[in-house]
């Protein structure tokens, strides 16, 4: 019986090649997208699941409760020692501190090669908490002695050309000779850990007194602290005990810090602490489901439309003793056969587009990911689900046809049923397509708004050059003057960071006007010299710029600070005293600058102060003439290298750094464009199939209308009107739904664009236009046909 089902199903599919092709192509695109999305979701949900004690590993984090809650995936440097020695909750506690852009000198064959690398200074217990084994498979990583390091397999090949490097050395920052004591297997991509060179923690003392020391007064985001807990610990109880730490170790502070314990499994998918927003994955999964639903709708619509033409077949089957159950399984087997072909084609599509998918999301999904029992279980479940979703309703509908009416040829399209359902399903397709187009337009508009709006400072043609060493005032100003003489250079400023861009925040406490208590808000530090405002084109709102100085005696603040302290105007705070950084820095406010965006548009503009301090200058902001960038950069490198002869020249453009803040949104946009296009394409395939049926059904009607004087335009309007009405209904449904969803998405931005009416008009109009183009070929062909031939059509 089963063999018979599939044999008849095959014959029916071959007989109706066009509609079979439409169904297979639509479903294959849906299956291919679902496979890629499955791999993508599996990748992100598998982060850090390869550690034996993953459920006992926690990262220590901090919440700062002031006027707002600020989340940091770090703790003060002294936290680890106290948590390790004063509490009995853990087996191991370890810190790692990242330092970016350090220079490594490696001597080979009489030549010295320089490399610039990010380095992690690591306490020895770190490799006892986590499962990052050596090449020999053991976990015997040794970083107890100073001037030792372990590196990954790939890093060894890049630095030395091979992995047999144990005992070899490199010079760190032209000073320390570091011996390699082990080679690690490559860190899995599904790990929170982004590093390939790990150096003994003792060596951090040469690079960061703050992070190396036992300081409770602040936090550096470069530091992370991990703990391996003993079994059966109550996390809520531990966090409650940790509430006492600020009071005990920072008795004179405002004690705004609350220490939290973040499970290892949540590090990758916790947006508050810098991880991926899980909503992104949910949306991704829903879009994949939408594509399969649209493809299934195509199948249902085409199958129910074919019911009229298969009525005699069904009538004969019933007269010869066929039962409804047998007919139902016959049509379901046809659906299964189509789905089987489609899933094989979709699998091939997924493999074909996997490299492009990886490039879009900067990940490394591999074909090996497809060779697992879980994946094949997913494919089988998908095949069964889609077969049932697509075939159950048409099967039930077709099995209910009355055999007598079918054999007498008295069945109409209304008798075969499904007309109302088809309209409903077509509307559902259009609702999804319109919603995806609206999402694409809104995301695109918000990114454009964020990247092209006035940020309050100049970011165009500004090169940010690293100052890799702490230099004195004389050396700094000598370098600055030489850079200003370079042809093409317009302005130069030394600074801690640029006014805006990713990872440029350093917040601290503030006291204003000798008030007895510190302010409830924190203030963002923007250290810069006397040319900072000029180089970045930040306008003054009141007062003056500070004078050239090697120490901080004068400060500038922004308008947000004026608002936060409750002053009536910017002029009212000029000459007032200000103390920051635990009152270690005291100065006078001499000017107020206009507000500028010191972060992304997702965050509110913060209170900011700007002051000069040469020892804290990490970068040079250089405004250049973009007409001869290459020659200017070559000359800048020459002058810079005279001061930092043992360093590697490295630079970035400020506008690119600002754009990096919106990488996730850019991927959202790319995702929306791709899947909107796929949704519309699959929907148009179904429309094309339906219009084939409708045109063939109304061939004689078209001939009569032409004989009676109807023009091609009249006939085209007649055949298109029903579909355009369905699009209009879909637009009415999609508009409020998509507006609500995108408005909620925009709430994540403090500064956001508006969703104009034209967005919905453009989305609906686009779908209408694409639909007209899809159905125009068949309708024009039918309308242009010889009416004599049309009238002869039975």
Describe the structure.
The chain has 794 residues and is of the alpha+beta class. It folds into four domains: 1-47 and 278-417, no CATH class; 54-267, no CATH class; 430-451 and 662-794, no CATH class; 469-646, no CATH class. Helix content is 48%, strand content 17%. Strands 13, 14, 15, 16, 17, 18, 19 and 20 form an eight-stranded mixed sheet that branches. Strand 1 (57-65) and strand 2 (69-72) form a beta hairpin. The longest helix is centred in the middle third of the chain and has 38 residues, at 324-361. The mean pLDDT is 82.
Count of structural domains: 4
Q: Classify the helix fraction into a percent range.
A: 40-55%
Query: What's the shape?
Result: globular
In what range is the share of β-strand residues?
15-25%
Membrane topology: Multi-pass membrane protein
Protein name: ABC-type antimicrobial peptide transport system permease subunit
Subcellular location: Cell membrane
Pfam families: FtsX, MacB_PCD
